[in-house]
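input
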Amino acid sequence: MNGNRKTASLLIISFLFLVWFVGSIGLSIYEVKIGKTWLFLIILGQFFSIMGLISIISAVSEKQHGWWFGGIFILIGICCIIYGLMNKFGPDDVNYKMVNAIPLIIGVTMSIVSCILLIYGSIFRKNLQAECTYEISAKCIDFRVRGAGYKAVKCPIYEAFYNGERILLEKNIYSRGLGNPAKDEVRRLLVCLNDINKTTDPNSSVKEGTRISRYIDEKTDKAASRFSNILYASFLIGGCILAVAAYIFIPIF
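output
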């Protein structure tokens, strides 16, 4: 009975989310076509804000790092809403300056966010290397899969044994490649011994099957780190170029 209620609730929430998602996109396109830029900005702002809130809730519920990334979307959403309100109700000269400032603001925002992500990624990897020093051999027993066909992304699930206890390791990070193992492939992983002890402690409330998410898979982690660094560095360079070009060629004052 409880299972049916949960399924029904998920279906209703999914339907409402779909209606909101499609409605926001459709309404924003319509408002642009009829010339109501201010309303488009407000609709876009609430879209970013809600998506950021969903991202934060998802990260916190799954106990993942980087929940603050959703806060960036919320901040962008709030800025869009403020821009929309100023565009409608603000003085003409202020509105003119705000419109001209958009490319500069986008460039500066891209540069700052990319720089923060590069620094955060570097600090996170160093902290992980400092904590994960215990070596174990783990076998890839399965994958979590999202999507289908060429769009499918995978998250490997490893199985290891420590003092006779079964341990499952899963980062909940999905990718198409980036050094993912083959099924039944055995790899050397570095884990945090404290995490293992908590999982295997008979007095702990943690049940078997709980995934340990903090570990180092050198082959996958190096590929993922290289990809993210190239991506964020590209955004950083692009943001700097846009900011400089906007400052030089688009007058604000």
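quick obs: DSSP finds six helices and six strands in the chain.
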